[in-house]
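Re: weekly structure request thread

Next one in the queue (254 aa):
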Amino acid sequence: MPAVSSKARPLRCVTVGDGRPLVLLHGFAMQPETYLPLARRLSDRARVVIPAIFALPERWSFAHALECLELTIDDQGIDRTSLLGHSFGGGLELAYAARHPDRVVECVFSDTLADRREFRLAQEALRNPVGLLGMASVPAAEAFFKSFVTHPIQLVHAAWWGFTSDRSEDIDSIVRAGIPCHVLWAERDSILQQSDGENFAHDLHATFDTVNRPPGYGRIDHDWMFDDPELFVRHLERLGLEALGPPARDARPS
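Done, posted below.
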């Protein structure tokens, strides 16, 4: 492992529950607290740790964010963990799993940075600006405002990385390591195309599932992890994740 930068520090986290560890990496400009409704629904079976991935001690860069994430997981006393990444957070999830396959139990990606091609994500995100505004729920709008006020420069640098990075090597590394992976996708994602999620799952040798909308249920969009937490948990439970299985005696060091 490369030497850790002297400025890298463990990140602020929201932690809920006491069971097998599940590290949740939140979406672009979101806050850990945005995902509390989901975390609380998992807290009877898992210890959900949600780092604030934009609150870095220095200017946001991929390498610095990854260093801080590594230190955060160490600081939480976690030896091996399941990972759950939403949207932007899936890029960091890929990177961590690729570099530390021995410490990752399984990966779940929800409506995430999937495409291998560098500028495709930017084109998709901007193809329907009116739809993006219509998608934004109150929790998403509040989180974005708070993030923009507290970390505006961090968001700009993080967005540029998300739009220009190539995730091919990380995908290939995870496949070689044989880490179990699952991809979940909203019924009608206003930001990312379902075909990208399907291709991502294919490249990752992962399962792929779109949301199963109950009769009479409204539209399910990109942020269903926190807009529809009960429905999202139902889909997680169908994956047979180790994180949601019976408590392990060594889930958390004493």
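The beta strands are 13-16, 20-25, 46-51, 81-86, 104-110, 181-185, 207-210. Confidence is low (pLDDT under 50) at residues 118-126, 128-133, 250-254.
Next request, please.
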